[in-house]
Amino acid sequence: ILAENNLIRDIFAFEMLAKKENTANQIQSGYYAFSPTESAQQILDRLVAGDVADAIVTIPEGRNISEFAEILEEKNVCDADAFIEETKKVAEYQKNYPILSSIPLTEKDGVSRTLEGYLFPDTYSFSPDTEPSEVVTAMLDRFVEVYDQDYLKRTKEMGKTVDEIVIMASIVELETKLVEDKANAASVFYNRIAANMPLQSDITVDYARGEKTA
After folding, report:
1. Which of 11, 47, 109, 111 makes the best surface tag, with the fewest CB within 10 Å?
2. Please, how many CA atoms are within 13 Å of residue 13, restricted to the half-sphere of its CB?
C-alpha cells in the first residue's frame, strides 16, 4: 500500500528494514496520514508507534441523529448504522447519566426514544474506527458539562424536566435563525401549551415525517 501511494520506493528494502529492527510484527493498524517527504524509517517508526490520524469532527447545531451518523461515517470514525443503534440504548446510559432520567423508556405512538437532543453538537477529535459507545459517551459528557447546575436549578424552578427543556430547545433551534429570537419563540410555544392550543410548528411536522423543508 505504501509503495502504491509512492511513499516508499522499494518494498523489499522496507521489509528488510522492519525485520532488521525486529518491528515487523509490531506495526499497528489504523488510518495514517503520511507525507512523501518522510523517510522509510520515519514511516516505519510511526506505524510501530500507532501514530494514527485522528479525525476532527464538527457536528453543527440543529442536526438530527441520522445527520450525526452520516458525518461520523464520512470521517471514518464509526459506522452510521452502528452509531444510530447505540443511541437507542437509553436505559443503559441512564445508569451513568442521571441527567437522562426524565427520558421516557416506554414507546409513544409506536416510537421509542433515543439519545437525540442530548448528544451535544460540538467539535470533537476521534480516532478512526472508534467504538460508537465511545463517541456517544464523549458527546454526553459534553452535554453534562454545558447543562450545568445552574441550568438544572433553573429547570426545577420552571417546574420542567430536563427532557421537556431539551425538546423545546430542539424545536426553537430550528424555528429561529437569530439568537435574539429564541426566547420569544419559546415564549410563544409555552403560551400555546398553557392555552391548550396546538404548537403549530412546521419543525415538529418535518421531524415526524423524517424530512427537512424550507
Report:
1. 109
2. 9
Whether the CB-CB separation of 144 and 120 falls below 8 Å is answered with: no
E strands along 100-169, which residues?
A: 123-126
Question: Is residue 109 a contact partner of residue 163, using CB atoms and an 8 Å limit?
Answer: no
Confirm if 199 and 164 have CB atoms less than 8 A apart: no
Name the pLDDT band for 129 (thresholds 50, 70, 90): confident
Chain center to CA of 210: 19
Nine cell digits for residue 206? 418535518
Indicate the length of the chain as a whole number: 214
Decide: 93 and 151 in contact? Cβ < 8 Å: no
pLDDT digits (tens, 9 = 90+) for 146-192: 999 999 999 999 999 999 999 999 999 999 989 999 999 999 999 99
Q: Look up residue 63 and give its amino acid.
A: R
Distance CA 174, CA 182 (A): 10
Contact 54, 134 (CB under 8 A): no
Q: What is the pLDDT of residues 40-82, one digit of tens each?
A: 999 999 999 988 778 889 999 989 999 999 999 999 899 999 9
Grid coordinates representing 49?
Answer: 508507534
